[in-house]
Every structure is written in C-alpha cells, then in structure tokens.
Amino acid sequence: MLSRELRRLMAVALVLTTVLVTMPLSAADFSAARPVIGSVSAVGSVDLRGVAISQEGTLFSGDSVRSHEKGYAKVLIGTGSKIELSEKTDIIVNRDARGVQIAMNSGIVGFTALTPLRIDVAPFEVTASNDASGNVAIMNTTTAGVRAINGQVTVRNLKTSESFVITKGQEQILGLKDGVHAPSLGQIATNVPAPVPAPKPAPQTPAGKSSGGGLAMDTGAWLAVIGGAAVAGLAVWGILAAEHANDRADALTNQLATANQNIAIANVNEANAEAAVAAQLKALANATNIAISTSQQAAALSQATALAVQAQLALQASGNTSAANQFASLQAQIATNQNALSVLQTQVSATEAAVAAGTPGAAATLSALLGQEEVLRGNTNSLLGQEKALLNSNSGTNGVPSGNNVPGQQPPPTQSSASVPV
User: Fold this and answer.
1) Which of 27, 45, 263, 346 could be disulfide-bonded to 68 (CB atoms 3.0-4.6 Å)?
2) In this structure, are residues 128 and 111 in contact, taking their beta carbons and an 8 Å threshold?
C-alpha cells in the first residue's frame, strides 16, 4: 500500500517538474512580429522567402527575394525608395536603426533612394539617398561594379573604412576579393606615365675615371641607366594596367547597359500585365452587371404576368373574351422572354467563371452575351409597354388593375472601363 502511494507521489512530482521546466521554453516561442518593409511586384519567375509569387507579396525585414531566368522584381519600400531586380538576382532585405539594408548575393540591382538606402556587396557598402539612383552589378565572384545615374553615391570599404564618392555618370569597378577599386577612365588616363625622355650625349671621361673600351661609365651613370630602365618598366606596367582597367570598365558598362535594357523590357511586361488584369476586372464587372440586369428584367416580367392573369380573369368574368384573349397572348410572350433570360443568366455565369480563370476568348463571348441582353431587354420593355396600354384601355372593367402598377422601363446594364473596373 505504501509503495503504491509513493509511486503516485513521484508521478505527480514528475508532472509538476516537467510543466515548470517547459513553461519558459513555451513562452520564448512567441517572438515579436517582423516589421513590414514594403511590397514586391513580380514578373516572371520570382521567389519571396523561398516561395514563388505570381504577382505581389508583402516584404518583411529579413526576407529574401530571388529572380530566376527571365524573371524581374520591383520592390517598393514604405519610405518611398525603390529597387529593381534584373534576372538571376538574389538579395536579402533588412531594416535597422540606419534604414533599409540590401545584402546582394548575385545579379544586378537598380535603385532610386528617396531615403538612406544601403546595398552591401562584401566587403563594400554602397549608400545612396536624396533621390540618388544607379545600378550595382556583381559580374563574377571577384568583381562588382557601381554606376551613379543621378545624384551621388558613397562607397565604403567595411574592412579598411576607406570611402569615396561616385557622382552622376561615373562608374567604379570593385575588387571583392582584395577590396580594391579601379579609378574612373578619366583618372586612369591622367595617371598614365609620360614617355621616357631620350638620353643626352655622354660627356668625355673626366680625369681619374675609367676610360677603357666598351661602356665606360662611373657608378652614377650606371645608376642613371638602371633608373631609366625602371621608369620604362613602370610606364609599360602602367599602360598595361590602364588597358586592363579599360577592359573591365567596358565589361561593366556593357553589363549595366544590358541590365537597363532588361529593366526596360520588364517595365513593359509589367505594364502589359497590369493592362491585362484591368481588362479582366472590366470583363468580370460587366458580367456581373449583365447578370443583375437580367435578374431585374425577370422580376419585372413576373410582376407583369401576375397583373395579366388578374386582368384576364376580370375580363372573362365581365364577358369581354376578346380583351381576355389579348392578356392570355401577352402572358405567353412574357413566358417566352423569361425563358430566354434564364438561358442568358446561365451563359453569363459560365462566361464569368471563364473570365476569372483567364480562358482565351472569354471576353469576346461576353461581348456577344451583352448583345443578347440588349435584344431581350428591348423585348421586355416592349411587353411592359403593351401591358400598360391594355390595362389602361380596360380600366373601366371591375377587377382590372391599374396600368400604373406595371413596372417601369428597364435600363441597360452599367458598362465598366479598363481604367475604372468597378
């Protein structure tokens, strides 16, 4: 008995210990929500947080954005700045006390910075603000390039704290492995060494110096020759370095031009996609308006049928068979139009679903249905007008309802435009 009670006490103690130990761990799971930085618009194959997006997504601090081949992304930051990713570009976006930070892993990024914006291409940090714009391109694992299109951009080496400024129209090549940067083409041309001057005729050998055959020169003369050779070697090295820098600068210029062209193409594609979405919304709104119009017509005809039945019965009771037959014929015509409206409603619903799914030719089908609605609406209004006239002409018969009870003429459905879809 004692052993059983002891086991129970131990079990209760173990449960309490487990609960108390795990409580802090459970509370730690509820971390603060990450701040929203802005939004991402995608054209083509683009991933946000590692998940493919088709049009737009919300950008949080710490999110990754990657554009694949033939993909393009535009990031709108809440502060008003904008960055654009060309194809095959991979970045991570963060926000700290200094503002928005973009860590580039690959590709080409275009930027317009209304507020401070930092783009990290290790070991360099590119900072832009005050409506400055430009491009940053990672050409390979060892080389990157920066170009200022408007305003000025500051580039800082995070390892050495060295910094320099690039102004409008200037470009710089950055060495990602050694942390050096190549000067602009104008600076390269300025720093090319001058041609080595021609040697002057040697004076006659002074007394006390060597005058033997061959090159008879003292130590100073030899030093002059060696110095001249060294200067010539430096000149050749400078020219080769300048040519290499020119080649790298040309490669950067070509890549930046290609990036600008890709961004322009992506902008056109984005505009076309927006126009397609607007047209789709217009078609959906028009389908809804046609469905509303046909429903209103069907309700008006149902009310007209009830009035026609009441008038027919009253006229038959009074012995006016001819007028009663007119209302009977009117009821048959109303029934035919109601059936046609019912069929049209079914077709509109099917077409609306096809438009929402992006089925080719759905918009053209909707235009044809709009024409059918116009014909049936004409029939509806004609029947309502005939009934009102018949009721007024037989208003003296007891039990015939007043023509004022007939519904009014049915208006056409509201048509939407691409610019104002609803």
Assistant:
1) 45
2) yes
Measure the CA–CA gap between 183 and 165, rounded to whole angstroms. Answer: 11
Helix (H) or strand (E) holding 185: helix 185-191
What is the b/e burial string over 363-399, where b = at least 16 CB atoms within 10 angstroms of the residue's CB?
A: bebbeebbebbeebbebbbebbebbbebbeebeebee
pLDDT band at residue 47 using 50, 70 and 90 as cut-offs: very high
Domain 36-182 falls under CATH 2.30.30.100: no
| CA–CA distance, 35 with 59 (Å, rounded to integer) | 9
DSSP 404: G
180, two tokens = 């050096």
Average pLDDT estimate for 81-108: 92
**β-strand partners of 182:** 173
- CA distance linking residue 190 with residue 346, whole number of Å: 79
Q: How many residues does the chain have?
A: 422
CA dihedral defined by 109, 114, 119, 124, rounded to 10 degrees?
A: 120
pLDDT tens digits, one per residue of 241-262: 566 666 766 777 777 788 788 8
The Cα 372–Cα 351 span in angstroms is 14
- 190: exposed, middle or buried (Cβ count in 10 Å: 0-12, 13-18, 19+): exposed
Are 384 and 409 in contact by the 8 Å Cβ rule? The answer is yes
| Per-residue confidence (pLDDT) for residue 202, from 0 to 100 | 47
Claim: this prediction has a pTM higher than 0.85:
no
d(CA 81, CA 74): 11
Q: Can you tell me the mean pLDDT for 139-164?
A: 91
Rama region for 319: left / alpha / beta (φ>0; ψ in -120 to 50; rest): left
Quote the CA–CA distance of 73 and 262 in Å, as a whole number.
Answer: 11
- 62 Ramachandran zone, left/alpha/beta (phi>0; psi -120 to 50): left
- pLDDT tens across 373-406, in order? 999 999 999 999 999 999 999 989 999 999 999 9
Q: At what angle do helices 362-393 and 321-356 cross, to 10 degrees?
A: 160
